[in-house]
Amino acid sequence: MSSAFLPAPGGHAVPDPLRTAVPGTEAQARLYLLNGFELFLAEDRVRLPMHAQRVLAFLALARQDGVKCSRDAVVGRLWADSSVEHANGSLRTALWRIRSAWAGLVSAGRNELALGEEVAVDLQQCRDQAGRLLSQGMDLAAGDINCSPLTGELLPAWDEDWLLVERERLRQLQLHALEALAVKLRKLGRYPEAIDAALRAVAIEPLRESVHAVLIDVCFDEGNVAAAHSYLRQYRTLLQSELGLEPSPQILARFRAPVATDARAAPAPAFQPAPAV
User: Fold this and answer.
1) Angle at 106 between CA 126 and CA 28, to 5 degrees
2) How many CA atoms lie within 13 Å of 59's alpha carbon, on the beta-carbon side?
3) 38 vs 50, 78, 85, 134, 137, CA distance in Å?
4) Which helix (H) or strand (E) holds 95?
5) CATH at residue 80
6) What is the pLDDT of residues 92-126, one digit of tens each?
């Protein structure tokens, strides 16, 4: 994680956006929550005890929604099973450990706590990337085709009730962003990358028909009719096995050739992909 680059599709590397997200600060703090907790100050990895990690993660999640947390809210969520006295003591100890690493990690008022403004968080970078992909424009920034942030899991090893809704929020955002990326790449004729993005979305939600439709459309655009039929068979088998359902008429219509009304008309094409508009 300390590398300046992150992996991208095709084996190429793209710059880690968190390394330049907060230029000119006293200590460049980078907090990673996807696929596990990691904290860096400049090039140095910072190791914190679990109770301090939980406070930073909780404040990072609050910041993405523009929320400042009261101290009571933090102790109520993180130490719900403890007495008020013990919970407040745990919070004070966690804040002391965090400030010992760098005072700028947390902004603390009399009654409110917030993640420091100069702390870059990979989760926010993921949300920003998803926001760009879900916009109506066709432009793709250099890092937008990097699917790694769009497939990362939020602190997967942590067993915390307060993370359940946040994980589902992130999963849905990643799913929609990957599908949007696949659509944009298809329109740009970048078919291998479009297939990669679509398959990553399928891995997140195998029963999402709109993603399978994009995958099939890309195959048709490339002229790979057999591959399109193969993906449909896989989707149909899964759908029947899990829900006892058939694919929708909309996705099946992609495989029906238009019916000729004149016997002398030219033979109908073997497939009818959805237009890339």
Assistant:
1) 60
2) 27
3) 12, 19, 29, 28, 34
4) helix 84-101
5) 1.10.10.10
6) 999 999 999 999 999 988 899 999 999 999 999 99
Token look-up 């916009």 returns 135
Find, among 224, 196, 15, 10, the residue nearest to 120 by Cα. 15
Asked whether 111 and 99 are in contact (CB, 8 A), the reply is no
pLDDT digits (tens, 9 = 90+) for 148-160: 999 999 999 999 9
Last residue of a domain, one of 121, 146, 166: 121
Of the three residues 121, 144, 160, the one that is the final residue of a domain is: 121
The DSSP call for residue 248 is -
Alpha helices (H) in 104-208, listed in sequence order: 122-133, 164-187, 191-204
Which residues, 6+ apart, have CB-to-CB distance to 185 below 8 Å? 140, 145, 191, 193, 194, 197
In terms of Cβ atoms closer than 10 Å to its own Cβ (0-12, 13-18, 19+), residue 255 is middle
197 belongs to a structural domain: no
Q: Which domain holds residue 58?
A: 5-121
- Dig out the tokens for 242 from the structure: 């899990």
The strand pair at 29-32 and 112-115 is best described as unpaired
Which token pair is 106?
A: 């947390």
Which residue carries 């102790």 as its tokens? 75
Is this structure's pTM higher than 0.90? Answer: no
**Cβ count within 10 A of residue 92:** 12
